[in-house]
Amino acid sequence: MRQTWTTTVAGLALALAASGPATAKPPGPPSTDAVPPIELTITMDNGKPVCAPAELLVPANADIVLHIVSEADRPVTLTIPGQFSNGLVEHADGDLVHVMSEEGYLVKQKGQGTLRLRSKAPGQDEYACTSTANQSEPFKGRYVRKEAAK
């Protein structure tokens, strides 16, 4: 039996798709439909990073877009416990580098980027912005996830 180039490529594509890496179970449907982008700004004060807003308020279990803009003159790492792991990040682009075993993103000097992610269940965590020069003195804020109004 003779195979054509098209059937060979199609078969190879199906085989690769079937044997692809195992992925984490995708989260269920979002708790709310459209959420406007949320902006986080990083500045420096006396050589230390400062993130605004200090209370990052997002809907719980929702698909959100976090736009990060850094005015800092050095790289800064943004960490939110558990938010950047377990398959919750759908897409990251711009001047962001995934670091620290899925716990954070390094934002390049004077960089900006976008994270598309599913927020965690209702609750709150401490988030931090840390400069490589001042790792012992991070900026700490609150990452608050509220249940969507029904």
Automatic annotation (TrEMBL):
Keyword line: Signal
Tell me what this protein is called.
Anaerobic typically selenocysteine-containing protein
UniProt superkingdom:
Bacteria
Source species: Methylobacterium aerolatum
Which positions make up the signal peptide? 1-24
